[in-house]
Amino acid sequence: MWKLEGLPNTTFLALIAGAALAAAAPRSSSYNASGSQPDYVIIGGGPAGFVLAEELSQNPRTTVVLLEAGPDTAGEEDIDIPGYSPNLLYTQYMWNYTSQPDPNLEGNAPTLEQGRGFGGGSAVNYLGACRGAPSVFDEWADISGDDGLRWENFLNDYKSTVHYQEVPLDYDPHINPSAYGDGPLELTAPLENLGIVLELINSFISVLKLPWVDLNDGTGLGVATSTNVIRASNRTRDFAPQAFGWQLAGRPNAQQLSNAEVTKIGFKGTRAVSVTYVNPIDNSTNTLYPKEIIVSAGALNSPKLLMLSGVGPGDHLRSLNIPVVADIPQLGKNLRDHHCAFMSFEVTSQVETLWQYTQNATFAALAEEEYINNSSGPLSVPNGAAFAIYRAPDSVFEAVDDTFHTSLPADRGQLLFQYSTSTFQATTPNVSIVSPFVGLVQPQDSGYMLLASADYRDAPLVYSNYYGSAGDKAAILHGYKRIRELFSDPSITPLLMGTVALGTVVEGKTWRIKGLDGIRVVDSSTFPYPPTCHPMATVYAYAQHAAQLIREQDR
């Protein structure tokens, strides 16, 4: 393990980042190969882009250029340190997109953040690795005619990209070693500083009636501690530019270019012949003429770029005066996202949360010291280190006459339950909060996206259509109710509190603040645990009850 006592945090992180990328050639935003043109240009420096670039450049006679619109991510402590991943929202490492107002959400416009920078989503996510139900991949194989996508075959591709590194643990993470191979990406289980994780797992098991399993081995339903993309040696994030980029760095036939935002793919007739990109820092423009172009820019940026280049719904492109290269009406449609509904609970001080890092300097200093000296402690554990994949009972969908969800293969769950040790709301009390959430992972209805204009700098128009069918609405409503049950389970309730909690801050039966006289608190802030429905009626009754007891005490 790393043991760099006395070093400031920034120095430590520069060292651990540099260790993985020590051999890397300087990354720039302009191609330089003595006038020759590459065989491949890959657009998008996320997991797909890096794996493609590494594989293709293994042939020394094949030249590859990987273009990433965002910055280099090496040495960024919020990326490298697992516990800091929530800090990455609304930064330069995100495409901070916003959905159009969604009628299914009463006109609200959810955010749609995407990874921006080397690593893409692998640089900014909560580090969990999960594969899910085999039937999904079997269906992909049927649709595509590619038998290699069938689970029994596709599992080999999973194994070729990752390996699992065992570490000493004081609990059983229920890992199935046969699910992992010897690929460059390292997976580990969370260490001993799990905070609320084990309590949540017990709650998931009790309330959802699910087993504790490894959701990477072909098991579709169950509870899991995340297998995380974290190096066991120093508990830092392992992600695309480090697992695959270091191999590219030593190859003269491969280049990785950050700050290279592609504005257009050029066509000659129906053949793609050029890639034009801009450095957003100095606005310099470059054009490459590769033999082949591979677009790996993600669910939103790939269709956006193709539309800007004349590929997509013809009527839409013509309305923006974009010459149509190929009229493909379905491009930009079938957008499916795992939108989440969440709750927020105040928790006791024994649960380590992001709020404690930002509000308690002593706690933050101790956490950083433990991480720097021992590669352990709360910063070594990612947010959301426990989750569950759950299939709702068929009865949930009977009232809305939905057959989509009930007809899904038996290994597929419709709902994912997880949590964050931070708040998802813009305005919350200044207290320590945990936010459990549920996501619809098999939505029936899909959304779509269009261009806002012909200017590459404009964000796309995303019509998310979350919970667009009656069955989707029934599923997420059921999931939301289950969150209430999960956080009313005896495994969890001792860790929850109101903001002025009864029995903790105020005395039972008197509602006096402990240690003070002449003051009481009677409102929802004193609820020790939340009610299982809307609180207004409970507040009425609660105040009525308190008034009777207070009146008797004052006689």
UniProtKB/TrEMBL annotation:
<dbReference type="InterPro" id="IPR036188">
    <property type="entry name" value="FAD/NAD-bd_sf"/>
</dbReference>
<dbReference type="InterPro" id="IPR012132">
    <property type="entry name" value="GMC_OxRdtase"/>
</dbReference>
<feature type="binding site">
    <location>
        <position position="262"/>
    </location>
    <ligand>
        <name>FAD</name>
    </ligand>
</feature>
<keyword id="KW-0285">Flavoprotein</keyword>
<feature type="domain" description="Glucose-methanol-choline oxidoreductase N-terminal">
    <location>
        <begin position="298"/>
        <end position="312"/>
    </location>
</feature>
<dbReference type="InterPro" id="IPR000172">
    <property type="entry name" value="GMC_OxRdtase_N"/>
</dbReference>
<keyword id="KW-0274">FAD</keyword>
<feature type="signal peptide">
    <location>
        <begin position="1"/>
        <end position="24"/>
    </location>
</feature>
<dbReference type="Pfam" id="PF05199">
    <property type="entry name" value="GMC_oxred_C"/>
</dbReference>
<dbReference type="GO" id="GO:0050660">
    <property type="term" value="F:flavin adenine dinucleotide binding"/>
</dbReference>
<protein>
    <recommendedName>
        <fullName>Glucose-methanol-choline oxidoreductase N-terminal domain-containing protein</fullName>
    </recommendedName>
</protein>
<keyword id="KW-0732">Signal</keyword>
<comment type="similarity">
    <text>Belongs to the GMC oxidoreductase family.</text>
</comment>
<dbReference type="GO" id="GO:0016614">
    <property type="term" value="F:oxidoreductase activity, acting on CH-OH group of donors"/>
</dbReference>
<dbReference type="Pfam" id="PF00732">
    <property type="entry name" value="GMC_oxred_N"/>
</dbReference>
<dbReference type="InterPro" id="IPR007867">
    <property type="entry name" value="GMC_OxRtase_C"/>
</dbReference>
